[in-house]
């Protein structure tokens, strides 16, 4: 396992690589200074995202979770940059309750790269698994949606 912490406009983010795939991304948390080609590539892509020159990530990912958690993460990966869906939209797609989708979104181990910030509640923002780094989770979600121009409903 290799761990590297990078600076982002939303605070320090720690990335974890295991067996050739990104398995975690979290704001705050324990700092790491490992240097691998994959962690460097992830840092570059995240920097490009925040610079506005990248709208999607091209990284090997592995969600260490149940088949359901992986299915929800796959559904989130399909949400285009700058767009949003609701927990209910994903629930219909997977034929499960929206609350279960919300819990799986909250358990997303790779926020930002797997864009759980693009999933909203039927009557509001919903939560965000990217809590930390000195910024509340929902605040961070709003900032990411604004960055992507998906925040017309929030402004």
UniProtKB/TrEMBL annotation:
<keyword id="KW-0808">Transferase</keyword>
<dbReference type="InterPro" id="IPR036388">
    <property type="entry name" value="WH-like_DNA-bd_sf"/>
</dbReference>
<keyword id="KW-0234">DNA repair</keyword>
<dbReference type="GO" id="GO:0006307">
    <property type="term" value="P:DNA alkylation repair"/>
</dbReference>
<feature type="active site" description="Nucleophile; methyl group acceptor">
    <location>
        <position position="116"/>
    </location>
</feature>
<protein>
    <recommendedName>
        <fullName>Methylated-DNA--protein-cysteine methyltransferase</fullName>
        <ecNumber>2.1.1.63</ecNumber>
    </recommendedName>
</protein>
<keyword id="KW-0489">Methyltransferase</keyword>
<dbReference type="GO" id="GO:0003908">
    <property type="term" value="F:methylated-DNA-[protein]-cysteine S-methyltransferase activity"/>
</dbReference>
<dbReference type="GO" id="GO:0005737">
    <property type="term" value="C:cytoplasm"/>
</dbReference>
<dbReference type="InterPro" id="IPR036631">
    <property type="entry name" value="MGMT_N_sf"/>
</dbReference>
<dbReference type="Pfam" id="PF01035">
    <property type="entry name" value="DNA_binding_1"/>
</dbReference>
<dbReference type="InterPro" id="IPR008332">
    <property type="entry name" value="MethylG_MeTrfase_N"/>
</dbReference>
<dbReference type="InterPro" id="IPR023546">
    <property type="entry name" value="MGMT"/>
</dbReference>
<comment type="similarity">
    <text>Belongs to the MGMT family.</text>
</comment>
<dbReference type="InterPro" id="IPR014048">
    <property type="entry name" value="MethylDNA_cys_MeTrfase_DNA-bd"/>
</dbReference>
<feature type="domain" description="Methylated-DNA-[protein]-cysteine S-methyltransferase DNA binding">
    <location>
        <begin position="67"/>
        <end position="150"/>
    </location>
</feature>
<dbReference type="GO" id="GO:0032259">
    <property type="term" value="P:methylation"/>
</dbReference>
<dbReference type="InterPro" id="IPR036217">
    <property type="entry name" value="MethylDNA_cys_MeTrfase_DNAb"/>
</dbReference>
<dbReference type="Pfam" id="PF02870">
    <property type="entry name" value="Methyltransf_1N"/>
</dbReference>
<feature type="domain" description="Methylguanine DNA methyltransferase ribonuclease-like">
    <location>
        <begin position="4"/>
        <end position="62"/>
    </location>
</feature>
<keyword id="KW-0227">DNA damage</keyword>
<comment type="function">
    <text>Involved in the cellular defense against the biological effects of O6-methylguanine (O6-MeG) and O4-methylthymine (O4-MeT) in DNA. Repairs the methylated nucleobase in DNA by stoichiometrically transferring the methyl group to a cysteine residue in the enzyme. This is a suicide reaction: the enzyme is irreversibly inactivated.</text>
</comment>
<keyword id="KW-0963">Cytoplasm</keyword>
<dbReference type="InterPro" id="IPR001497">
    <property type="entry name" value="MethylDNA_cys_MeTrfase_AS"/>
</dbReference>
């Amino acid at each position: 396992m290799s761990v590297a912490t990078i600076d982002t406009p939303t605070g320090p983010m720690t990335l974890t690589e295991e067996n050739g795939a990104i398995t975690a991304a979290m704001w705050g948390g324990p700092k790491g200074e490992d240097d691998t080609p994959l962690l460097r590539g992830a840092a570059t892509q995240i920097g490009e995202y925040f610079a506005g020159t990248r709208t999607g990530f091209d990284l090997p990912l592995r969600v260490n979770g149940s088949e359901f958690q992986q299915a929800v993460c796959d559904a989130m990966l399909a949400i285009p940059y700058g767009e949003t869906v609701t927990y209910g939209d994903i629930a219909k797609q997977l034929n499960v309750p929206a609350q279960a989708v919300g819990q799986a979104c909250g358990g997303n181990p790779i926020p930002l790269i797997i864009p759980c910030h693009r999933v909203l509640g039927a009557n509001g923002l919903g939560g965000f698994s990217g809590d930390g780094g000195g910024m509340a989770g929902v605040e961070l979600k709003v900032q990411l949606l604004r960055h992507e121009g998906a925040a017309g409903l929030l402004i």
